[in-house]
Design brief:
With about 220 residues, the chain is mostly helical.
Length: about 220
């Protein structure tokens, strides 16, 4: 799963940095810092996964607090980037555009729940590793939204669908390959939390109440 996450980051952001190096794609310096934090988050997840899989449990636990600190730093950075975009970019005149302000809160609120849940279950490895994987894949949503082959004319459904497939299919296959050949409770409950968060997002998408609220927030942020 960590290799998949690294591949998503590479295919999503390397083309932008190539354009940046050529002078055709400006990137603000604060976004470089955000990118470094998110890369550190994926990197420390990969390190922890390697240490756990190779049986180096003592080292895994020793670096665990650092990994969680980087995870919470990534969470703060996600929120900062979301609010920075509201301040820097001129608000749209198209009221439908404000639906696209929903994925941000969906990601960083759900990410924080999974990260906190994973921390609470750190003494239960089978729960811990699954829940931290949910957190990891939620943090990849900004990268997935850069894939042009995922259509946005249907709203956020395709992006949520790609996340669900890429996250849940490997987890289900992994669970069923274990001796018990049944879904682990962490997979089931994590999926229910994920689906509940997505249900809230889609219940708000396109509603006049959300659009008016997001419109007011976006314009207040520019004042």
């Amino acid at each position: 799963m960590s290799l998949f996450a690294l591949a998503v980051l590479i295919f999503a952001f390397v083309p932008e940095y190539v354009q940046y190096s050529q002078g055709s794609f400006p990137i603000a310096w604060v976004l470089h810092i955000h990118g470094a934090i998110m890369a550190a988050w994926v990197g420390v997840f990969s390190l922890q996964a390697y240490l756990g899989a190779s049986g180096r449990i003592a080292q895994h636990r020793k670096t665990g607090n650092l990994a969680f600190a980087i995870g919470w730093l990534a969470w703060v950075s996600m929120i900062f980037v979301e609010w920075r975009a509201l301040i820097v970019k001129a608000p749209s005149d198209d009221i439908r555009a404000y639906d696209w302000l929903l994925p941000g809160p969906y990601v960083y609120l759900t990410f924080s729940l999974f990260l906190a849940w994973a921390y609470r279950t750190r003494q239960r490895p089978e729960w811990h590793k699954r829940l931290i994987t949910f957190a990891l894949f939620l943090s990849l949503q900004a990268a997935l939204q850069r894939f042009l082959w995922i259509p946005d004319r249907y709203g956020y459904w395709p992006f949520a669908g790609v996340l669900d497939v890429c996250l849940l299919v490997p987890l289900v296959v992994y669970d069923l390959s274990m001796p018990k050949r049944s879904l682990h409770p962490a997979t089931i409950r994590g999926a229910l939390l994920l689906f509940a968060a997505q249900a809230i997002l889609f219940s708000l998408w396109g509603t006049a109440a959300w659009r008016q609220f997001a419109y007011a927030v976006a314009h207040a942020a520019r004042r």
